[in-house]
Amino acid sequence: MDPKVCREHLDRLVSEETSALRRLEVLLDTEYDYLLNNNVDELDRASAARQACVAELLRIEDERKSLCRMLNVPADPPGIERILTWCDPSRALQKRWGECAEMAKNCRNRNDRNGALVSERLKKVEGLLDVLTGRSNQPKVYGNKGGYAAAGRSANVLARA
User: Fold this and answer.
1) Angle at 32 between CA 29 and CA 33, to 5 degrees
2) Tens digit of pLDDT for each residue in 54-95?
3) Domains of the chain (ranges, CATH numbers)
4) Inter-CA distances, 60 with 11, 44, 53, 57, Å
5) Is the dihedral of CA 73, 52, 5, 82 positive or negative?
6) Concatenated DSSP letters for 60-71?
7) pTM over 0.85
8) Of 44, 78, 86, 152, whose CB is crowded by the most CB atoms within 10 A?
9) C-beta of residue 13 within 8 angstroms of C-beta of residue 63
């Protein structure tokens, strides 16, 4: 492959990925607002848009991996660096690649933040359900199927009773 053609291909991929990551940042921030405000209807719509954006990012990653295979280079960061050094001696694309990696890290942090909020809400709901069902004073242990079960009880014993 000609280095110029490779650089053009990588330039397109970095541009597409940067654009998708910008959209994902906005979507994750919007999702966080919907989570904070318990806006379930909008959250469903935002989740669908987020999934479409993630699918686009996966397509770009697959295309980048394919380019790496074609050049017989590992599809990891050092492999991408080798390709960039070969096809982009000015290192302009390498700078954009680094910025893109930073954006991906920011998206991962936003996604972790959203996941932590969801986890916190689920624990709160679980606690409320325990109060309603009278299990709030019982210790939580894992049952035979991996889920939480009340201590000292067995689903098998209850099934036989």
Assistant:
1) 90
2) 999 999 999 999 999 999 999 998 999 999 999 998 999 999
3) 3-119 (1.20.58.300)
4) 12, 25, 11, 5
5) negative
6) HHHHHHHHHHHT
7) no
8) 86
9) yes
